[in-house]
Amino acid sequence: xxxxxxTFPDGAVKEFEKGITTEAIAKTISTSLAKKAVAGSFNxxxxxxxxxxxxxxxxxxxxxxxxxxxxxLWQTGAILLASALSELYPEMHFGEGNVTEHGFYFDTxxxxxxxxxxxxxxxxxxxxxxxxxxxxxxxKNLSEKEALAAVDGDPYRMELVKEIAEKNDGxxxxxxxxxxxxxxxxxxxxxxxxxKIFQLLSVAGAYWKGVSSxxxxxxxxxxxxxxxxxxxxxxxxxxxARERDHRVIGNDLDLFFVDPKVGAGLPYWMPKGATxxxxxxxxxxxxxxxxxxxxxxxxVLANLDLYxxxxxxxxxxxxxxxxxxxxxxxxxxxxxxxxxSHIQIYNRHIRSYRDLPLRIAELGMMHRYEKSGALTGxxxxxxxTLNDGHTFVTPDQIEEEFKQTLQLMVSVYKxxxxxxxxxxxxxxxxxxxxxxxxxDEMWEKSQKMLKAAMDDLDLDYYEAEGEAAFYGPKLDVQxxxxxxxxxxxxxxxxxxxxxxxxxxxxxxxxxxxxRPVMIHRGIVSTMERFTAxxxxxYKGAFPTWLAPQQVTIIPVKNDLHLQYCEQLRDRLxxxxxxxxxxxxxxxxxxxxxxxxxxxxxxxxxxxxxxVAEDGVAVRRYGQANSKxxxxxxxxxxxxxxxxxxxxxx
Length: 649
What we know:
Elements: E1 3-7, E2 13-17, H1 22-29, H2 31-36, E3 37-42, E4 45-48, E5 57-63, H3 67-88, E6 93-99, E7 104-109, H4 120-133, E8 137-143, H5 144-150, H6 155-167, E9 171-177, E10 180-182, E11 197-207, E12 216-225, H7 228-244, H8 246-252, E13 256-257, E14 268-269, H9 271-290, E15 294-295, E16 301-303, H10 304-310, H11 312-315, E17 324-325, E18 331-334, H12 339-347, E19 358-367, E20 383-393, H13 398-415, E21 421-427, H14 440-456, E22 462-465, E23 474-480, E24 486-495, H15 497-501, E25 506-507, E26 513-514, E27 517-526, H16 527-538, E28 551-555, H17 558-574, E29 579-581, H18 588-597, E30 602-606, H19 608-613, E31 615-620, E32 627-630, H20 631-643
Family: Belongs to the class-II aminoacyl-tRNA synthetase family.
Catalytic activity: tRNA(Thr) + L-threonine + ATP = L-threonyl-tRNA(Thr) + AMP + diphosphate + H(+)
GO molecular function: ATP binding; catalytic activity, acting on a protein; metal ion binding; threonine-tRNA ligase activity; transferase activity; tRNA binding
């Protein structure tokens, strides 16, 4: 039958009979390894434990305690779910099954109607029957004709079969569990017994292949683990995620909403949400102006030629809305980026080296052509306002400006109590350079310069290829979200390209024209994403300085105490404190509980004693007891709280 050479992670090379499996190889190493192993990674591709090896290659044996092992378990959970569904709902069609960051899913199309979560118990019971029976999961390599016959007229799987066959010389790898034939990618366990610990989670809509013009399918989510304690931890994490979900909190606290009649990804900011946003906007503008930035306003529309000149049309077109034909040859585009607009401001006047660094900033509205399936509350929208800034510097000013921008970032993070972040140097992908501006010398120079600046600042960072902007490398600040994920909150990007494309100049000390360098930076991302991030971090309990309503005043009896409450309110409003009086005809205990539910930082209760002594009974959010202080003491306390950005220092 012939021999193949297998290279192991430690560099050792062994010869085996052609057709040997990962399982057989594991047994030659040790019995304990064979028991823990669930799959193989052959030439960096996950393969089934019983899949035959027919060529030379590098093999890594995948065990249960690895992240790859969990991926294999989740792929098996997906086919287990689909097989159970196919038996329970014979008319159901199936799209793709795959894994997520925390589990698995399968896309379905049920002729008789969507599955309700109340049916999960019935579906889980069928899955458990398969697990108990230890059903074999068979791996086969079929011809296109055989695979089409196997999926038995399912339109979605037939489409997948044809696509896979076209890419693989007419062959299609499938997994078979009972009567279900799965053409989704991914290695599976050899049998169902490994999926003992699982839970179905939720259902959601998902366009076929993520394209909004395709049919809407129903995505059924689940998760599974090798140990019960890991499943328990995951369910606890999901509960925490639900409690912190900014969409849920935003609805409960009436911060924002999205109306499908208007359009997905186009949020409406309600008064409370608008107050939070306005507070952030005023804060960041004041902060930037104090650091030498000049704030501007620029149009949300621009001639398409501007984005062709900048390169956005060539490199970013799929994320831009279609141009608007004005009928006279003029094509207008909703801007996806603010940088070309700020370049026009730079170009408005002749610049001298004495003018640099020139720092231009704007809360600039932008539009992105996001697919419906990718939109999420405020964190992923089609219309957004970016805290954007561009600095034009001489080459010898780069490091100092880079340092000052980082110091500004760190100062802002301190005020918002953001502590869990790390720095990422983002480079272009050297193996996929066609995505980026074609100038090897520029990329080498700018990447080295950015790295040198970080080293000079003695900051820890990690490097990531393929994460750069199309025009240059960047420093990304990666923050931990409240839900355990990671996202880019701030960025600093070096750009030698756009000054070249727009022929920017400054007059140097020698009287000659020189080319500036452009530094793009965003400190707090978009107003939408930053508000979503803060909502989840704070769990809706915003610190006093950010809270949409900072104080609620509750009179014990309106007829006796309301006038005093109104005087107190006016005094606080005069000091720019956001306050209301709850004079509803409800019991005081109910009004106190409602204020706690609405997460208002300060509750002031006013009765006979408070009126007589010019005082208030103060109760902080989250505290069970109140304290009695004079009105002057309270005013001083809350103003100090606001002035310190609610930090306990």
